[in-house]
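Reviewer 2 asked us to include a model.

Predict the structure of this chain.
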Amino acid sequence: MHDIRLIRESPDAFDAALARRGQPPRSASILEIDGRRRAAATEAQAMLATRNALSKRIGEAKRKGEPTSEIEGEAAALRDRIAALEADEREAADQLDGVLATIPNILDADVPDGPDESANVVLATHGEPKKFNFEPRQHFDIGEALGLMDFTGAAKLAGSRFTLLRGDLARLERALANFMLNMHVEQHSYTEMSPPLLVNDATVYGTGQLPKFADDLFRTTDGRWLIPTAEVPLTNLVREEILAESDLPMRFTALTPCFRSEAGAAGRDTRGMLRQHQFQKVELVSITTADQSDAEHERMTQCAEKVLAALGLAFRRVVLSAGDTGFAAAKTFDIEVWLPGQGAWREISSCSNCRDFQARRMNARYRPAGEKGTRFVHTLNGSGVAVGRALIAVLETFQQEDGSVALPAVLHPYLGGVTELRPKQP
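Predicted model (C-alpha cells):
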C-alpha cells in the first residue's frame, strides 16, 4: 500500500516510479478520488460544528421557554446532510483503498531499469559450473532411472504438475529440508515456526496476493486460501500490532508445503518438478526498522547462499530489473543455481525487501525508543531455499556416469548412512 501523502506531495515522482514498472500514470485519478474523500470529510466536519451550535441554541431556547421547531428543523436537515456526506466519504475511501491495493511497490533507486529478466544484472558467481566427461542428464531422467521419481503415479493421483518421490529420494527431500532448517535456526538465529497452511482473506491481502493475484492461488470451499509460501502467515504475525523497537529485528523460518495454481505458466517447465502446483520450501522472514532493512536484506541473502555453498552447488546472485521485480518488492536478489542437465542457471531463491509496503497493508508498526509516535515496520522475505529445486540441483550436479548420484557430505547425518543413490537393479 502507498502513502497517499507522498502521492499528494510528489505526483510526478509517483508516476515516474510507476513508469519504471511499465505502469501508466495513476496520480491524477488517485488524487481525484482523494479530493472527493477529503472534501466530503471537510464539509461533514463543518456541518457537524454547525449542528452542535444549533443543539446549544435549542437547549437555551427550551430553558427560556422559546419555540424551537424552526431550529430543530435546521438541525434535522443538517443531520441528514452529514449522514450523506459521511457515506460519500466512506465510498471514496473504499474506492481509494481499492485502487491503491492494485498498484505495485515503488522500486529502490538502484534497481536496474529494463522490461523483464533480460535486464537482470549478475552481481557475483560462487563456484564453477561442474564439467562432465559424459552428457549430463536432467533430474527427471535421473530420478526415473533410479526408480524413485514417479510422474505417472502422481498424475494418476492429482493430475499434471505433481511429483511422487519414493524411498531414498523422498528421504533426500526430507534431509535437505531438515538441513536447511537446522542451519537457519542454529547458525543464523531464525526462530522456527509451524504456521497454518490455510489462511483468511486479511492474511493474503496483507502480503499483497489479494486482490491482484487471486487467480494464482487455490481457495477452499469455506473461503480460506492455501498458502503460496510461508511468507504469507509469517509476515502477518505482526499484522495490527505495535511492536517495541527493542523487539526488532524479528526473524522467522518455516518449512511448509506451498500451493500455486501456476495460472500464467502454461507451457513452461512442463516436464519434471521445476514448476509444481505443490512443493516444499524453507522460508525466511524478517521484520525490522527502516534503517536496518538494507543490512537485513544482505544478511538474509547470505543466509540462503550459505545453504547452497554448504551443499557444494555453483550459484550466482542476480539483482532483478524493474520489469522482473515482484509486486510487493522494492528490490529483489535472486539466487540462481547451475543445473548441468539443463545447462542453465535457474532461480532457487528470491530475497526481497518490501520496505513498508506490506506493513501499510497490515497496519504493522513499531514504537521507536523514547518517542510517542509509531512508524511502520519494514518486512523482508526470502527462500532459504526451495527444497525441490535444491533436490534437482543435487541430482544434476552430483550425477555419475553409471547413473548413481553421490550425495553431499553435509546431508549424510540426515540420511541414515546413505551416501549415494544407485540405479534400480534389473
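The first helix runs from residue 4 to 9. The two ends are 59 Å apart (CA to CA). We have added this to the supplementary material.
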